[in-house]
Design goal:
By secondary structure, this protein is mainly β. Helices cover about 15% and strands about 45% of the residues. It has a single domain, classed as Beta Barrel (Thrombin, subunit H), CATH 2.40.10. The protein is globular.
Length: about 110
């Protein structure tokens, strides 16, 4: 067993232990349920101009679950819908790190 196989096994074990099921939707497609490790950033810096209007998070997923994630894809985590704003390859080619953003502004309709 090589290093990459060991890391892939570790990633699968981490997803099983710490992950949660989310619905990932490629822009213009149908949602697919996958396992992901999600970290929602709780500390919002009040000095930032966008502090009151958006929340940020990051999500780690297996590359085999999402072969080609894209900007503006969406992720439903519980009842909240997040948008993919940045995509990074993880420490190896088996994981993606996705930066997410969610609009917090209220929606008023007539």
């Amino acid at each position: 067993m090589g290093f990459n196989e060991a890391v892939d096994g570790l990633n699968a074990a981490q997803l099983a232990a710490f992950g949660q099921t989310v619905a990932y939707t490629v822009h213009g497609s149908t949602p697919v349920e996958i396992r992901a490790i999600v970290s929602i950033h709780k500390d919002i810096d009040d000095a930032r101009w966008n502090a009151a209007v958006q929340a940020t998070a990051e999500m780690w997923v297996k590359a085999s679950d999402i072969p080609s994630p894209g900007y503006k894809d969406t992720v439903a985590i519980g009842t909240d819908v997040w948008t993919v704003v940045n995509i990074d390859r993880g420490v190896n080619s088996s994981m993606w790190k996705l930066d997410l953003r969610r609009d917090l502004r209220p929606t008023f309709r007539k």
